[in-house]
């Protein structure tokens, strides 16, 4: 359960190297780039926030699979893209009705959004860059909550994270 966490670490190190050599990515806002001295923790926090998390610690907790499901963790916005907002999906405050909706609708997927849940059509997952991950989806029975902490979840989180960070360029 370290694929996505390791990817975030690697990208933070690459960002730090670029910033220290004077190369500022276009997506970095002006106020953020005014720092005199960049540290790895700054880059980790920036990339975690761009991935939909509050900060680096939040990203590491969720992506590592260490969050306990019994306290309804905040999954952040990793599994959401603005382009998904125009799709008609079913949103739920609780997991149980979301799971029932997933079982009633063949081909849909259940994804977390902060402390809520969305049951969405396959186009939603395509917009997250997950269309190539059909085996992982099948092994999770299309349910990212029930499959949280598994290798398939980690693979999907890695694909979604890469898609989000690659779109920053």
From TrEMBL:
Organism: Bowmanella dokdonensis
Name of the protein: Uncharacterized protein
């Amino acid at each position: 359960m370290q694929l996505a966490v390791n990817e975030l670490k690697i990208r933070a190190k690459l960002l730090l190297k670029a910033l220290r050599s004077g190369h500022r990515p276009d997506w970095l806002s002006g106020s953020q780039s005014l720092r005199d001295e960049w540290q790895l923790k700054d880059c980790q926090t920036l990339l975690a926030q761009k991935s939909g998390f509050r900060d680096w610690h939040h990203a590491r907790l969720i992506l590592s699979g260490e969050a306990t499901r019994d306290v309804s963790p905040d999954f952040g916005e990793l599994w959401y893209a603005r382009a998904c907002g125009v799709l008609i999906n079913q949103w739920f405050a609780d997991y149980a009705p979301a799971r029932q909706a997933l079982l009633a609708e063949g081909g849909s997927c259940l994804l977390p959004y902060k402390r809520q849940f969305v049951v969405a059509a396959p186009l939603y997952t395509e917009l997250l860059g997950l269309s190539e991950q059909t085996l992982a989806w099948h092994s999770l029975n299309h349910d990212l909550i029930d499959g949280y902490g598994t290798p398939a979840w980690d693979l999907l989180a890695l694909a979604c994270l890469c898609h989000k960070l690659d779109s920053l360029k």
